[in-house]
Amino acid sequence: MVKDQVAAMLQSVTEREDWQEHGATAEDFSQRLGVRRNTISAYLNDLYKEKVAIKLNSRPVKFWDRATLEQRYGIVLENTEFESQAALENIVSQPKRTAFDEVIGGHGSLYTPIERLKAAAGYPGTGLPVLITGPTGAGKTYLAQVYYQYCVDKGYLAPESRFVHLNCAEYADNPELLASNLFGYKKGAFTGANQDSTGLFDEADGGMLFLDEIHRLDAKGQEKLFNYLDNGIITPLGATKEGNHVQVRLVFATTEDIQSHFLDTFIRRIPIQIEIPELNDRPRQERENLVKLFYLRQSQKIQRKVLVNTSVLNILSSSSYLGNVGQLKNTILISVANSLQRAAQSSNIEILLADVPKTVIDHNIQDASLLSFSDQFISVLPTMKIDDLISESQAYTDEIKRVMLKIIQQFQQTAKRNAFIDNAIDEINQLCDYLIFKKDTEKSDMSVGFLKKMFADRIANVENNSDTQFMGNVALVLAYYFYNRNRANWHLVQRDEQCIQQINATFHGEDAEIDQIVGDLRLITAKTMNLHLDDVDELFIHLYLRSVKKETNSQNIRCIILSHGYSTASSIASVINNLFNEHVMDAIDMPLDIDVAEIGEKVSSYVKNRQINRGLILMVDMGSLEGIQKFISSEIDFPIAIVNNVSTQSALLVADDIRHHKDIEQIMRNVRQAMVPKTQIIYPKEIKRNLIVTCCFTGIGTANSVKKLLLDSMPAEVDCQIQAYEVDRLKAEEQIAIFNKLYNVVAVVGTIDPGLPTAPYISLESIISGSEMEKLDKALQVCMTTEQLQQFKEQLIHSFSLERVINSITILDAHLVMDNIDRAINKFNQLSGHQLGNITKMSLYVHVSCLIERLIRNEPITSYDLEQLSDTEDQRLFKWIKESFSVIEKIYSVEIPASEYGYIFDIIQADA
User: Fold this and answer.
1) Backbone angles phi and psi of 554, in degrees to 5
2) Which of 54, 137, 498, 831 has a 20 to 30 Å separation from 205 between CA atoms?
3) Is the pLDDT of residue 14 over 70?
């Protein structure tokens, strides 16, 4: 066919070294083939429409073969039409594409892993060892293979070098066999070693060795890699001489946690560690592109056109995959196999929802939007490249590009320049909101904070050396913009670039300050980020800075908000200025440790570059700034007013007065009158909650333990809170007032009566003995039914057995400690000739158990008024107690201080 001849001649012309000077024309091909010019022109345009040919709109129109140019320059030509040959030559002269450029997600979820791999690849010698982590099926092996190809593309590895893959799981239980496979062995090294043998390191010499499932290596297996990681030397098993050097790039992979499966000494030897996300965590656009990629591979394998219903594309892109990318790939394989059964002889196959595995359909059965019918298909041809399928959909996934294309459209359709600028600024402001509040910034190593600091210095330089001021946090917006531009991987076609240049030309010379900032940013982004400002960046900066540049302050009273914090002052000023839609407030954000002298320097710099006639108001968050005028270097011929405790409300009041041209004294009077703080406490209006209070003179810890025992006994449906308090707090008037306001205190349970006037006290020992159950019944009737109260008491008998109480409030063995306390009590009974009652004994069991634990923990109670033991009888009783309970000191090797003996004295004296 003539068309095939035209295509072949087009390829031949493009293969010439001087292809730029010999583009194919309809006239030339017409003469060489003896076919009418109109026919040749039609065929060349058909090839252009099929994206086989590149078209140059010159006179005459010229064509080249697209695939030949792409192969020669290692690029993908997204655009197949150019307005000038220079534009085409500029595109093909761009840096050669590498394997990483083909990775879906390379500028999204995989951006940081790929950047780290590039850093590892470029390190001198054999690069840096790499450890890839991620779940099964996430693509670790694929990324390792792409990393190898990238090293080949960049010339770090020779094209003939090898990529050697070993799964360490095969040798998990045999480190010696692993060593022989990795490093080789010498004849006689072990039984069966009849001759020398090389290992995988030798096979990979000059290339890359990928060790998968590296976590299956035990400590010995990991240690066998140390010599190569440290010195680049391998020693075959059985070798008696020094090992030999090899040049091998190492990549490891694991699905497991690094810290729990590897030696620290092994991990320290692997400086580059990257993590691949699960497929479900990757953006939907990436998942959709992966679906298209796998259908393209299937189309190429079966050599048929594949028509994928958009419903299938939608459900596969939205589903969850436990097996990650591997499971998605198998799902697509099954759908193609199912479709082939229906159309075994057809040149095309259609992928419908019926071809998708049942498990995927069932998983999404509740989502009607995913299972809705569609009559739309995307065509996947064996001759296509992945860029042919995803370039169109990706063109609008970059918000910056989308906005720029819309601005170009507005420029071409809007006749009045002012209207165009207003519309363009609206688009830029929406873009800024998107970049700051919606764009994900967690997948890059570049710090937004670093960029903000860098841009803040440049903006401050312009503001300090002129009367120009900008509203809002300009540095933050620029930081987010360039953060995202650094990750961008798109270009405008030539006609759009020319339009951007035309727009920029209209701005040049209009605003000297903005022109200066553009020049500064062009310099610092090139030096610090290796990012060269292009026409798109220049247009963004011009439009954004025009939108936030403050109008010259004509009131001649200036106001500065000075506040400690990262952006507190600038945030308040931004709110005020935006509310009034004009610039009234300036801001200085200050570190916490700044002094008055430093603030004076900042104010001096501000005053020096501004015209101030009627006064300056300084609104500060804290501190008086007394004497600040001594630190302002400029000559002051205007009054300075200072307002403390700045807030949005006070700033709004001052700004409104400035706008209404009030003098500085009137403004200060208004502030003094309006800024008197109003305070009130709002208590809840609902009915008071029932409350049981627990307390213990030994501390809050024991009170909490009693609280837990009560909670364990109380039926779940009972509307009553239980709270633990320290005794001193319960005696405070403020706490009693809170109880009266918020709670109905039904009872106090513990080891000491705090004397709450409105609540009965029930001692812990009386609950244990059951002696005050009637009192407890009466107290709890307000919050429990008869059945609930009976259930509570039955559970109480179990929860408040003596041994259970002691076990709950101490770490001691209840049975043993009670025996030891009994010995002390018996000794006291002998000395005093008085038998202690059961309630007192129970109190001593609980108290002394806690006492022993406190002394063991070295946390004794040290406060007790021993002077109250003034009479002879008290002193004799105190002596008997010390002698009796000294047995506790001996058994537990502790020393009971006098203050602790004082509390035992209180318990025993109450019995008397």
Assistant:
1) -95, -5
2) 137
3) yes
With a pLDDT cut of 90, the percent of the chain lying above it is 18
User: Can you read off the two tokens belonging to residue 353?
Assistant: 């929802």
Q: How many residues does the chain have?
A: 912
Q: Among 481, 478, 449, 456, which Cα is nearest to 587's? A: 456
Cite the DSSP H helix spans in 731-837: 733-742, 764-769, 773-780, 786-799, 802-809, 814-832
Give Cα separations from 344 to 203, 281, 348, 381 (angstroms). 44, 37, 9, 17
* Phi, psi of 81, rounded to the nearest 5 degrees: -135, 135
* CB proximity list for 231: less than 8 A, separation 6 or greater: none
Cα–Cα–Cα angle for 642, 644, 645, rounded to 5 degrees: 150
Residue 433 burial (CB count, 10 A): 10
CA distance 397 to 386: 16
Exposed, middle or buried: residue 437 (CB in 10 Å: 0-12, 13-18, 19+)?
exposed
Q: How far apart are CA 769 and CA 721, in angstroms?
A: 24
Helix (H, G, I), strand (E, B) or coil at 691: strand
Contacts of 397 (CB under 8 A, 6+ apart): 285
Note the pLDDT tens digit of each residue in 631-669: 776 567 788 888 888 889 899 999 999 888 888 999 999
Residue 104 neighbours by CB under 8 Å, 6+ apart: 286, 289, 290, 293, 386, 390
pLDDT at position 396: 38
Per DSSP, the three-state class of 467 is coil
| Bridge partner list, 237 | 185
- Residue 448, classed as helix, strand or coil, is helix
pLDDT more than 70, % of the chain: 89
Place of tokens 């003179």: 697
Largest CA distance in the chain: 139
Residue 469 has pLDDT above 60, yes or no: yes
Question: Looking at the predicted structure, is the pLDDT value of residue 272 above 90?
Answer: yes
Q: Using CA atoms, how far apart are residues 698 and 810, in angstroms rounded to an integer?
A: 12
Taking the CA atoms of 557, 561, 562 and 566 in sequence, report the sign of the dihedral they define: negative
The structure tokens 């170009």 sit at 408
- Listed in sequence order, the residues at least 6 apart from 525 whose beta carbon sits closer than 8 Å to its beta carbon are 482, 531, 532, 533, 537
Evaluated on CA atoms 228, 230, 231, 235, the torsion sign reads negative
The answer to whether 748 and 785 have CB atoms below 8 angstroms apart is no
For residue 878, is pLDDT > 90? no
What is the DSSP secondary structure assignment for residue 443, as one 8-state letter?
S
Helix axes 838-856, 802-809, angle to 10 degrees: 20
CA–CA separation, 156 and 838 (whole Å): 89
Burial label for 641, CB within 10 Å (0-12, 13-18, 19+), is middle
Q: Would you call 225 helix, strand, or coil by DSSP?
A: coil
Over its C-alpha atoms, the chain yields an Rg (Å, rounded) of 41
Contacts of residue 633, defined as CB under 8 A and 6 or more positions apart, other chains included, come to 600, 601, 604, 608
Q: Which residue has the tokens 């101490």?
A: 810
Distance CA 485, CA 477 (A): 12
* DSSP 3-state of 859: coil
3-state SS assignment for residue 239:
coil
Pairing assessment for the beta strands 208-212 and 249-254 based on DSSP bridges: parallel
pLDDT digits (tens, 9 = 90+) for 692-749: 999 876 667 778 878 888 888 888 888 889 998 888 788 888 888 888 888 889 899 8
Query: Where are the strands (E) in 276-351, listed by range?
Result: 305-309, 348-351
Cα dihedral 652/656/661/664 (nearest 10): -30
* 587 neighbors 489 (Cβ within 8 angstroms): no
Q: What is the pLDDT of residue 651?
A: 92
| Torsion angle of C-alpha atoms 518, 521, 526, 529, degrees rounded to 10 | -140
* Residue 530 DSSP class: -
Nearest Cα residue to 353 out of 391, 315, 323: 315
